[in-house]
Amino acid sequence: GMPVFTYEDHYIGLLYAYHTPPEERQISFFGKLDVQLADSRDGIHWNRTAGRATFMPNGPPNSIDAGEIYMANTPLIVDDELWFYYSPSAAEHGRTGRSGPICLAKLRLDGFVSVEAGADGGSLVTVPFECAGGDLEINASARGGQVSVAVLDEEGYEQSGFARVYSALFDGDSVRQKMTWKDAIFDSLKGQRIRLKFYLQNASLYAFRQTG
Predict the structure, then answer these.
(1) CA 93: distance to chain centroid?
(2) Nearest to 34 by CA among 62, 12, 53
(3) Span 54-98, pLDDT tens digits
(4) ∠143-145-147 over CA atoms, to 5°?
C-alpha cells in the first residue's frame, strides 16, 4: 500500500516497506513494516526517493512502533513543520497484540530529503528554469557551515553581478532565508531562463523557492 498526497508540484507517496525474514520461503507473514518515500510529477510515473532510504523508521525494541507503522494519507502544515499522524504497532506483522494508538511525527517544512556537504564542501547546479522574479529564498541548515549561491544563465555562465563572490553567506537554520547579492537584485532577472549554483559547506539544502 502507499498513501499519496500532493505537495507543491509533486505527488509524494508514503510507501510501506515490508521486511520479511529470509527464512520465510513461501507465504510471507511475519516481519517489520516501515515507510519509504516515492515521488512523481504526474501521479503515473513514480521514482523511489533517496535510494530507498527509510523515511519513517521503526522504533527500538519494545517501543510502541517497533513492529509496524501505518501512515495517515496527508500531513498537516503547522507553522514551519509537517505533522504526520500514524498508527503504530509494537508487534511485527502477523502477530497479535496490536495496540493501534494514534501517534504524531514532526518534520521541518520541505524536509523530505536534502543535499548535504561536509567540511570539504560541494556544489549543486539546477536544471534551467524561468525566473519568476521576487526574492530567492532557501530552506537550509548551515550552523557551523555556510551556503552561498550564484545565478547562471541557461548555458551555465554567471549572470553579471550574481557571482558567488557577491552572494551573502548564510550560516544559520531557516525554512525561508532570503538570499542577496552585493549590488544585484534577483527580481531583475524575471522572465529569463536561469540556473542556480549552490555552494555548501557543512550544510544541508532542503529546497529553494521564488517569491515572484
Answers:
(1) 28
(2) 53
(3) 999 999 998 999 999 999 989 999 999 999 999 998 888 776 555
(4) 100
* 154 vs 31, residue with greater confidence: 154
Higher pLDDT, 203 or 73: 203
Report the predicted TM-score, pTM, of the whole model to 2 decimal places. Answer: 0.87
